[in-house]
Description:
heterodimer, A: alpha+beta, 8-stranded mixed beta sheet, 22% strand, B: alpha/beta, two-stranded antiparallel ribbon
Amino acid sequence: MPHISCPVAVHANVTCHAAGMAVLREASVPGAPPLPPRFLRHADEHTVVGIRAVQEAMVALGHRPGPSPAGATDRFAVVAAPCGAGRPATARTLVSLRDGGPVTVSPHVVPQCSLHAVASAVSVGLRIHGPNIGVGGGPEALSEAFLTALSLLDEPGVDGCWLVLTAWDDEPTLGDRGDLPGEAVCRGVALALDRAAAGSLDLSLRIEPSLSLIDEASPIFLPGRSSLAELAAFLDRAAQAGGGDRDNHDDGCGWSFRLGWGATVHLEPAPARLGARERRRDAA
Amino acid sequence: MNRAPLLADRAVVITGIGAVTPLGNDFDSIADALLAGRSGVVEIDGAGFSREARQFAAPVAAIPTVAIDSDDAFDRLGQICLAASSAATADAGLGDLRVGRGPVAGARVGLVLGIGAEQLKTWEADFLAGGRQVFSPDRPTSLVHRIAARLGIQGPAVTVAAACASSGYALALARRWIATGLVDVCLAGGCDILSPTGFAAFYNLRALSRRSDHPSRASRPFDRDRDGFVMGEGGAVLVLESRRHADARGARVRGELAGVGMSGDAAHMVIPSDDPTEAARAIHLALQSAGVQPADLDYVNAHAAGTPVGDVAEAAAIRLALGTATDHVPASSTKSMSGHLVSGAAAFEAIACLAAIDRQAIPPTLNLDSPDERCQLDHVPLVARPHPVTVTASNSFGFGGANLCLVIRRAA
């Protein structure tokens, strides 16, 4: 059975209240590739936090532009999995369509509210020339994203992958014209998957041999709906622990969730790191 | 870098085709229409679609009914995706996909659908019918998982989106899953529907043709007088499997998905880059992964939607990638007949390549009366050209600089 894995070179976790989104749209990230002027003016909230997370991860990665603005990640794929993105803008558009007719529909709704919007904005805004793909869109987005990102790493011309995950911490109820409650929190998590890097965490997908054992009476499982906030908390704890300290992980062996089709996604200390730590313990 | 090359027995072949399109709902009907140069573009009821008095598009005429014992109600997009997926399964002779039941009992089967704006269209249909889903925090299960459940697919299921290249990326991902041994069989493709919001947005972006006086003449890729694309509807789902698996079960092999290349322009959210480097890189990578040279190509199915900027950019990319071979490789755009199926376009155009291989003829570019001198290609204007076809390439380019090229060839 296949076992696909890749080091996570770095991650970043960004949150923003809806009320603070206007400021974040215009804010720069020192040390990261700058966005074109007013690039996020029409962007969905998921795009704003997603692109900010990639910029912060680039800084953590020690970004240097070189011949390309995106530096060493110039030929990374961008896989973005927004869960329920574009809803406020779509609501505003639909109200506008109903009240004012087709002439009032903004051309921005297609590039900024589709499933592809976050991935394409990250690619265009940060000048990343690998393939850019939106994944998921629904509550199963997280599991679809990990599988897609790991799968793309073997494509020719792809040096690594920016995996961008976005969601509202609590999916908000919108007002009658699509307005967001100011306290709603949108979260973006970016992970750099790079087989050439020595990451402190290892992302892996293990296929378990259980699939063939499912009989016809078994229910058809839906993929896991693991929370993005839960994953972000794990990543932050792992980073604070100096990178993949086994003792600080929730269950002693990392973060994982099981997919319905006989596979499990694991984020766990990279084997080399773990080995080094255990050797240090032995020495002590 | 740890790469997973495609071994000979891991060659990925196409064994089934399911389609719901403006030109027909099965391979032979589509191939007949493409080679006859038949247009699917017609005047439609424009109420709610646009501010034009007369509106035109290439709609799906009829969606085949899928008889499946289910209480899950699918909307129009879901019905098209389900019908195409079900037809592909039948065409491949897979029978009942539920584990332990059909001829591929025990096989690991996956599903990848390229759908660019499923949620937007679901919210739109509900809202225009008086619903309030778009305001609600409830998140319904994605279409791909509902279809997988209905068909009994128990392997991985994923929705991907890369604008107009979405279903091409679905095929690319499915090919990789098979190559790495993640699944034995994978259904992959994509579909789209005509939607009031999408129509209005593309119209207001000035991306659509406004030749409402003669709808079937409106889609004219590479022509000097083109003025935008024509919206189409529908899509296709293909069954992919490893050559070894197909041979073991005695499946009919329609062709091989021999190569994939992908890249990003990283230039603009909606305008194709005037620098052809990245689009050409996608073509080059596809040829390289298939192990073919530019001169080996017998046909290029161009993305060419008929937009003034996009067609010129693509012609430059083809020329950069193929070099002097460009002058000898026939190229055409079947969007001149089908309209632009958006998310479903790449999968439909994979069928166009298979039709060229099956019929040994190149589908024409309809309405190509006066080729734009900035698009110097070996065009096939107006009527099909008999031609030996073994190796084809199909380009797909989407908003946000999503570039994809598939190499499809006659199976050995």
